[in-house]
Design goal:
Layout: E1 18-25, H1 35-51, E2 59-66, H2 71-83, E3 89-92, H3 96-106, E4 112-114, E5 127-129, H4 134-149, E6 153-159, H5 162-177, E7 181-188, H6 196-205, E8 209-213, H7 217-228, E9 236-239, H8 244-250, E10 258-262, H9 271-284, H10 293-312, H11 317-323, E11 328-331, E12 334-339, E13 342-344, E14 348-353, E15 356-362
Parallel strand pairs: 1-2, 1-3, 3-4, 4-5, 6-7, 6-8, 8-9, 9-10
Antiparallel strand pairs: 10-14, 11-12, 12-13, 14-15
Helix pairs in contact: 1-10, 2-3, 4-5, 7-8, 10-11
């Protein structure tokens, strides 16, 4: 965290020819597993924006910020960048606990595009969101699995912070609407390694479905422990946060009957996603981190921030918010529009198939039960 009473480093100087954007993403901790893909995808988008003339006549330049620390420290770091005039916007993937502290401190001063799936309900002026919420992501997936796979008793396993707890609260209602129930819940600290106690609880609960609300490497370790206990033979798993990097780290033997729901999967084969794959491979090579929904979200975060500023024609947050309803942008998920500061999007259900996801269907958001 930067102290305001100390001189800024030389490279922390404002430059009127540059539009600085704080890219807040995880460099370590459980979410660090997909941090490299987040950074590379965001840089790819920034290069695209700059080839197209930049933003408001300025070069868009990303300023990386580690979003995996204590929320107050991360927010203080970003606020210092805003105070120094180094950044005029914020984007990136970071957990909701960070967003909740960061948004009140900077959203009224600079536009803030949050790219992580989250629990819903964010309405701070100046905050714009690209990713999924439980109503559109989890509700129809649970409904479909209840009807197609007969899941009636769910057990929720999540990390102990706002996103898993509020999502689980919504899941109780979704399960009841589908004729089922939540048989148990467990919330574990970020960085948990020992899942033995919760696995015993799942076994004794007679659950036939496990809702995983675990972040990054925590989900990887849970998958391995789950399979080692043979629980994959008696209940499926559904995750709303499982990208290709996490899938590969888990390994094929640990992901049998594992479902994921998201607005993007790398295995979606259409013109937009294939173009994105080609651009990513051409820029970073075949050894780059795997593409997935979490990295792709950071690509969209940069594109949406640029589109908001271009549409408003100013850095003034109130003007950006007033113009947001007319903003659209085109990325790996096609042409997307904002509604109530959230991106309107398609959501898919996929099943793990070795080291990749087999996309089964586009979920019917209108047909999902309330």
């Amino acid at each position: 965290m930067f102290r305001h009473d100390l001189p800024a480093p030389e490279w922390f100087t404002a430059d009127d020819s540059v539009l600085g954007v704080a890219l807040v993403f995880p460099l370590q901790g459980p979410a660090g597993i997909f941090g490299p893909a987040c950074e590379l995808c965001a840089r790819l988008a920034a290069e695209e924006v700059n080839r197209d003339g930049g933003v408001l006549g300025r070069e868009l330049r990303l300023v990386p910020v580690d979003g995996s620390g204590p929320p107050g420290d991360v927010a203080g770091h970003v606020e210092a960048l805003v105070d120094l005039g180094v950044v005029q916007g914020v984007t990136g993937w970071h957990i909701s606990s960070v967003r909740q502290v960061l948004a009140p401190r900077i959203a009224h001063r600079v536009p803030y595009v949050y790219t992580a799936l989250y629990e819903g309900g964010e309405d701070t002026a100046g905050v714009f969101l690209t990713s999924e919420t439980p109503r559109d992501q989890l509700r129809p997936a649970m409904d479909l699995l209840a009807h197609e796979r007969g899941v009636r008793r769910w057990f929720v396993v999540g990390n102990d912070y706002v996103w898993p707890r509020r999502t689980a609260r919504a899941a109780r209602g979704y399960a009841h609407a589908s004729g089922g129930s939540v048989a148990g819940e467990a919330y574990l600290p970020l960085g948990t390694h020992d899942f033995e106690p919760v696995l015993r609880r799942i076994e004794h609960s007679d659950a036939d479905g496990v809702l995983m609300l675990l972040v990054g490497s925590d989900a990887v370790r849970f998958n391995r422990s789950f399979a080692a206990h043979g629980l994959h033979a008696r209940c499926l798993r559904l995750s709303t946060l499982m990208d290709e990097n996490m899938l590969m780290a888990s390994g094929p033997s640990a992901t049998e009957d594992l479902y994921s729901t998201a607005g993007f999967f790398a295995s979606l084969a259409n013109r937009d996603t294939l173009d994105f794959h080609g651009q990513y491979a051409a820029r970073y090579g075949v050894e780059a981190p795997a593409l997935g929904s979490l990295g792709e979200s950071c690509y969209e975060g940069v594109l949406l921030l640029a589109a908001l500023l271009k549409r408003a024609g100013t850095l003034e947050v109130s003007a950006i918010g007033a113009a947001a309803g007319a903003v659209s942008y085109e990325g790996p998920r096609g042409l997307l529009h904002l509604r109530d500061s959230h991106v309107r999007q398609r959501i898919y259900l996929a099943r793990a198939d070795g080291l990749d996801f087999d996309v089964l269907t586009e979920l019917d958001l209108r047909g999902a039960r309330p």
